[in-house]
Amino acid sequence: MSRCRITAGVAVAATLFSWPALAHHSFSAEFDSNKPVELKGTVVKVEWINPHTWIHIDVKQPDGSVQRWMIEGGTPNTLLRRGLTRESLPAGTEVVVDGYRAKNGTNRANGRDVTFPDGKKLFMGSSGIGAPQDGKDPTEK
Amino acid sequence: MKPLSIAVALVVLATAGSAPAAAQDSRKFSPPRTPWGEPDLQGTYSNRTITPFERPANVNGREYFTKEEVAALESRAQQGGGDDGRSKGTRQDVERAYNDFWWDRGTKVTTPRTSLVVEPSDGRVPAQTEAAKARAADEGKRPAFRGAGATGRGTDTWLDRSTFERCITRGMPGAMSPTAYNNNYRFVQGPGFVAIQIEMLGGARVIPTDGRTHVRSTIRQWMGDSVGRWEGDTLVVDTTNFTDKVLYRGAAENLHLVERFTRVGPGEIDYRVTIEDPTTFSKPWTVAIPYVNTGEDLFEYACHEGNYGMEGILSGAREEEKTKP
What we know:
Chain A is an alpha+beta fold.
């Protein structure tokens, strides 16, 4: 493959992926792009519901108090096809959530990225269906 | 190798590279038959694909991607789009919702064509009519424009939100088009009927093939009124009688769709839909989407179950109003 062709291919790919990705509802209407949050917490429960899962986590504050947050995730159908169930994330699991806070000011955020404290990505699941990789998980090959 | 041989080899490579990535199989596939003698379309299929809907500007005039371009696209999709999202600003990042892990939009170029739009030949949706542009400018006065418009959606009431967000329907041909996940369908046949169960938002299209005609024009349905017939091995479905409550690219109650389902191999249905609405589009246009057999079950998608998103959107707008003078 010549360098020129590789460049052309990458350019096409870049064009293709400049589309906005649309969920069944508008995340930019629900969450505030001016309020990114990073939350370190422990899982309380997973609401395995449609149209999107919600992971409830307890986040310890600097003063020792605990705040409960709700994190919006993918649809259960997609997650199940990736090989996980609601039991995949038992209560007490430590997670790091990187997302944006809800516009309504409640303790809700989208789970843009959910990782374990060691950097491993949550829910790697089965790779058979071509789970995408973004290089954030050090174990990704 | 002599320089000349190298040059020849490069030319051969370049030529091979510009050929369609997967040659069209010209051999006619003879589909299995149902016990009552109709072509058998039954099974579960997915239409997820990373082939662009319209032809990207940088492949203008070209119907097919090269093999190298297909490989680059698939590699990029495998890496989650190759973009962290934040590089384009937080607004776009939040619209992207989350890491690609949560999605199921596919990582395969299921057709090497440069666009799912196959007619007109430029691979682009035809221009809207002046009447359609005028309607769009008058957005808000008609039900379909109040909620289903892709741009400028309001947040005064749930009625301002699209029927997709409201868990009602994606309409037609939206319901037959790939989206970010739940791109799964089950085809079931009986004598005189073909049913298509749709995973995204649930529901099924029950299409009669018994020769009946459309219901009268005063009867309007969210998914329109579909009647089917067999033309050789192809199921042809004609759909009219849409409502004004669902918008598809500026079209609503005057939409007329002709869909063609042809099983082109043991694992694939070639799906084509011709979209016609003289009040909206300057000419008819056709989209072709491969439906690839998955052999997997569909899951229920009870969208109303926990649609906290709607509450979040509307209450978020109320909070934002408080901060504005």
